[in-house]
Amino acid sequence: MAMELIPGLPYDIARGCLIRVEYKQLATVVSICRSWKSETESPEFRRLRNATCTGQKLVVMVQARVSPDQASNIVKYGDSPVYRFTLLEPDTGDWCELPPLPGFSNGLPMFCQVASVGSDLVVMGGLDPVTWEVSTSVFIFNFVSATWRRGADMPGVRRSFFGFASDSDRTVYVVGGHDGDKNALRSTMAYDTARDEWFSLPDMARERDECKAIFRHGRLHVIGGYCTEMQGRFERTAEVFEIASWQWKNVIDDLLEDATCPKDLRVRERRGVLHVLWRLCGGT
Amino acid sequence: MSSSAENPTLTTEITKPSTEIATETAQSAKKINLKTSDDQIFEVEESVAMEFATVKSFFEDAPSSTDTVPLPNVPAKPFSQVIEFCKEQIKFKANPDETEKKKSNSEFVKEKTNEDLVEMIPVANYLEIKDLLDVLNQAVADRIQNRSVEYVRSFFGIDNDFTSEEEALLREEHAWAFEDVDED
């Protein structure tokens, strides 16, 4: 790529300047000229920012909004809190709130799934906070433009309580969960955020409602969950999908010590084998 | 955020002619003559000159050479500032203190105009002074912090090659780039 980013400077030197701008400045950078736009939008630019630690760390959280006039009252039962995204920059200690999802002015869908993919944030599924209808919507927040865009809706059955994991690059995986009739699902699919396309993976060996999905080093680990007959009685098993060979490996028995919801599970992976580090105690 | 160049046109670093550098440093250390693209000869202490990887390898390739080293891509003005930086850096080599070094680096950058910074980058690149290149890259990124699109274009002398339709779309998509920026 023999393009000039800054007149008089070699390409890689000019890029050395651009990778050091703060993420908030990237919206300006893409608006300068064509070569700056294509440079900053390239995956290589993001990779370099990460590799040289010149990017900023951002922590995105889902928090319930407490309205000031309600804060002193006891929260009434039946009132569902309004959830929204908050953003923390650990380096500066700055907090801000992300704009609401388009069409969800009453807060995020309940039980929606969230993952970071590349420099985007992806939000999927959940229940509409007002109608409690299952949402198949996909929303993507871009930190450069600071705007939300709609992705292609989740195909197939109206799926909820599925496992969700990101490869951190461009793909998110949707595994198990249940359909509109509360049938637990074995099916798995993936969404490519860059191409805005869905594709299917082979089915898992078991139905896994409320399972946990974790992506590490080219492997999608799906942990726990339960089949339709076992409503709420969680399994201790896990299974692993290998992206390179495009197939599910053997089911791992007894990965979990106790048969409970794996939602708060933390794991470490060594040579493709998962080790459970810790889990939160108490209700789910 | 107010540390960026308030008045880029006001401060101009005076170029130090070779005689001044010569009197500054006593006759003890070995000197090396470096000739810039605009034919100025800088007499530089060997320890400072060895900070320039390009010059260092010149001597490694031809150890017996005592002639003046030509620096065909290096004009005198930015070069004098680069020498200034390297002299400071050497102090920290003998006595490493990261906090003081950072302070010294930011002092160095603060005094420079936008033009100075942009002129020094190709020099630091040609002479392969990695520390300085890092400092300058960061300084440039800091200088365009919270600035308007128009300011950044004129800072680097970049032409706007978007069509008016594309520009309108960008303003819509990246509204926050066009709001709440510092005055140019």
Write up what this structure looks like.
- The complex is a heterodimer of chains A (284) and B (184).
- Chain A is mainly beta and 284 residues long.
- Chain A has four helices and 17 strands.
- Chain A has helices at 11-18, 26-30, 34-40, 43-51, and strands at 59-65, 82-89, 94-97, 113-117, 120-124, 138-142, 147-151, 163-166, 171-175, 188-192, 197-201, 212-216, 219-223, 238-242, 247-248, 266-270, 273-278.
- The radius of gyration of chain A is 21 Å and the shape is globular.
- Chain B has two domains: 18-143, Potassium Channel Kv1.1, Chain A, CATH 3.30.710.10; 149-178, no CATH class.
- Chain B is built from nine helices and three strands; from the N terminus they run αββααβαααααα.
- In chain B, strands 2-1-3 form a three-stranded mixed sheet.
- In chain B, β1 (31-35) and β2 (41-45) form a beta hairpin.
- Chains A and B meet through α1 and α2 of A and α6, α7, α8 and α9 of B.
Main sheet specs of chain B = 3 strands, mixed
CATH class of the largest domain in chain A: Mainly Beta
Rg estimate of chain B, integer Å: 20 Å
Q: Superfamily at the CATH H level of the largest domain in chain B?
A: Potassium Channel Kv1.1, Chain A
What are the SSEs and their pairings?
The complex is a heterodimer of chains A (284) and B (184).
Chain A: H1 11-18, H2 26-30, H3 34-40, H4 43-51, E1 59-65, E2 82-89, E3 94-97, E4 113-117, E5 120-124, E6 138-142, E7 147-151, E8 163-166, E9 171-175, E10 188-192, E11 197-201, E12 212-216, E13 219-223, E14 238-242, E15 247-248, E16 266-270, E17 273-278
Antiparallel strand pairs in A: 1-2, 2-3, 4-5, 5-6, 6-7, 8-9, 9-10, 10-11, 12-13, 13-14, 14-15, 16-17
Chain B: H1 18-24, E1 31-35, E2 41-45, H2 46-49, H3 53-61, E3 69-70, H4 76-94, H5 98-110, H6 114-126, H7 130-143, H8 149-156, H9 164-173
Parallel strand pairs in B: 1-3
Antiparallel strand pairs in B: 1-2
Protein name (chain A): GALACTOSE OXIDASE/KELCH REPEAT SUPERFAMILY PROTEIN-RELATED
Pfam families (chain A): F-box, Kelch_1
Organism (chain A): Salix viminalis
